[in-house]
Amino acid sequence: MAETSATTGTGEPASRPRKSSWKYIGPGIVVAATGVGAGDLVATLIAGSKFGYTLMWAAVIGCVVKISLAEAAGRWHLATGRTLFDGWRSLGPWTTVYFAIYVVIWGFIYGATAMSSSALPIVALFPDGPGLKFWAIVTGLIGLAFVWFNRYAVFEKVMTVLIGIMFVVVVYVAARVVPDAGASFAGLLPVLPDGSLLYTLGLIGGVGGTITMAAYGYWVNAKGWSNSSWMKVMRLDNRVAYITTGVFVVAMLIVGAELLHASQVALTSGDRGLVDLGAVLEDRFGAGTAKLFLVGFFATSFSSLIGVWHGVSLMFADFVERFRATAAPADPADPAVSEAQAGPAVTERQQRSLPFRAYLLWLTFPPMTLLWLDEPFGLVIAYGVLGAFFMPFLALTLIWLLNSPRTPREWRNGWVSNGMLALAGLLFVVLCVQQVRELPW
């Protein structure tokens, strides 16, 4: 096997290319477990309940789009030896301003949402126990302690267990409702029933499409993949992530189509819709299946919680490190500073850093106040606008970075990557406009 001619961001030659192998899989499992939350599953269920199998094709296209996006993020990290925020910073100060505002407001509201989502299935499993607020605080504190005291290797193992539970439960429930194979295959033919456009766009762009896609490159580095010799491994890992996500989407569409579409059962929007589904499953298949589903619901929600607590905290630590490097003169003798300037990998040091832990605390404690308060109107608007802009921001900046001299020539975008990223950018711009229009102005 020939040596690669690529170099890392520090100018060192990349080592011998690794063969893609299942034994290396890890960051993809993490990004799949984090990216698919309870709200995503409810949105997919509702699409299945309204349109049956008709939108199956949209789920498949969505997986392909997200494979392209995550691959681009991972490729940037490995090809350049630089983190994604370092790349954004090279595009101008506007990226720093956007990310700083976004990560503060988004984290505040998402923290409360994630804790509530993780508490809902526990309350449904133990209705005579403490209430939602108690369990929300408990899950937030457990997530905080777990991420605070563990490193990536342990984190990855726990996420693998949680996604295994999710996978088994969702596929089991889909099998119990007995999918219509003919209708499933017919759903792969692109069709847009009346009133289905927004559901279609949501399926393509929503499920598994969050800030966690940007965190993927950081998890790649935390795994120890730090240069282009890991490119084949990363690409296999990324495909596993979004094929797994695709299985979740297809399984929940089947449940929506078979269990809810024919009987015209309506679900509550948002995470509580999964509690409604648990009641439907209990009526149809008994308490055992309903309880098993609620365990899967908890695994889905809690994996998203600890995934964000870890991945976005890494991004925030990197953001602070880059900001400090430009805001103050660097001391070359300081190993932390020199490492920040080289920036090829997310390190153990960053996972123990003050910014990492400060953002962990920000995700956990201030959002607890929202458990007792209605979300302030201004915050809801800001959260909605900033969140809607994130996926277009990610897609379009990746096109910019990966077609520029910032990326070694052999790892720049080809026409397929440019086409998929452009399609993703266009899709997310449309979704962005729609999300902003639907906000309670």
Helices and strands, with pairings:
Layout: H1 27-35, H2 38-51, H3 56-80, H4 84-89, H5 93-125, H6 132-149, H7 152-176, H8 181-186, H9 197-205, H10 212-222, H11 231-261, H12 272-285, H13 287-327, H14 335-342, H15 348-351, H16 354-364, H17 377-402, H18 415-438
3D structure, described in words:
It is a single chain. By secondary structure, the chain is mainly α. Helix content is 71%, strand content 0%. It is built from 18 helices and no strands. It has helices at residues 27-35, 38-51, 56-80, 84-89, 93-125, 132-149, 152-176, 181-186, 197-205, 212-222, 231-261, 272-285, 287-327, 335-342, 348-351, 354-364, 377-402, 415-438.
